[in-house]
Amino acid sequence: FTIFLHKNALRNNQSDYYVTTIFPSLLEEECGQGCVDRTFSLKRCTSRNPNLCSATGKGYFILPPILSGRETTMGTLSFCYGTLEVNAKLPVGDWVVPELWLLPKDRKYGASSGRIVMAMSRGNQELSDGVQDHSSRVLEAGVVTSAGSQMFRTEQLQSWSDSYHRFKVVWTPDRIEFYADDKKLGQVQPLDKLDPSIGGGK
C-alpha cells in the first residue's frame, strides 16, 4: 500500500535543466492522529485494482506513516528499447523507500504488466530481518510482475543516500541490464524464471 501526493514533488527550473525534489510528509497530517492504526481509503486512487485503494492498520502492521511524492512522465514520454540513465541522490530516513521505476505505457496485461525497477534502496540507516541487511547500504534493481520477480542486490559500506549515483538500464530485444555507477548488477532475459515469492504471484 503506497500513497503518493503530487504536492510532495517540487520541480525547479534551473537554466537548461530541471531539478526535482521529492520530500516526505506524515500520513497523520492528511488523515488525523492515530490513523496509522485505522482504515485509510484513497479518495482519488489511480490503481485499477480497487483492493489497492484502501488498507487497514492492525497490531504491528500499521499503515506506512510516511507519504511520498512521485514525478512521472506518463502521457509525455514512452519508448521501447534503449538506454536510460538517471543521476540521483536517494533520500534517507525510516519508512522512506525511494524507487526509480519504468512502467508500461498501456498496461496491456493489467496487474501482470509489471514494472522495471532501476533502483530501490530503503532509507533506514539500520534495518535487518536477522538474516539479511535491508538498510540504505543495500541497493536493489530488477523486474517485478504479479507472477513473480527477479531482483538483484548489491551492498556497500556507505549509504546509497550519501551522494549522487548513476543508475542505468540497458533494454534490448533479448535482455534488460541493470547498472549502478557503471557496475553491472545483473540482467533479465525473457525466458528467465521469476521468483513468485517477491512479486506476490501464486
Short description:
With 202 residues, the chain is mainly beta. The chain has helices at 28-31, 196-199; strands at 9-14, 17-22, 25-26, 39-41, 54-56, 66-67, 82-88, 99-102, 115-120, 138-145, 148-155, 165-172, 175-180, 183-188. The longest helix has 4 residues, at 28-31.
Task: Describe the overall structure.
There is one protein chain. The protein is mainly β. It is built from two helices and 14 strands, in the order E-E-E-H-E-E-E-E-E-E-E-E-E-E-E-H. A hairpin with a 2-residue loop joins strand 10 (138-145) and strand 11. The two termini are 19 Å apart. Residues 198-202 have low confidence and may be disordered. It holds the Pfam family Glyco_hydro_16. InterPro entries: Beta-glucanase-like, ConA-like_dom_sf, Glycosyl_Hydrlase_16. It comes from Homalodisca liturata.
Largest sheet: 4 strands, antiparallel
Strand content: 35-45%
- Uncertain runs are 198-202
How are helices and strands ordered from N to C?
Answer: EEEHEEEEEEEEEEEH
How many discrete structural domains? Answer: 2
Taking strands numbered 1, 2, ... along the chain, how are they ordered across the largest sheet? Answer: 7-12-13-14
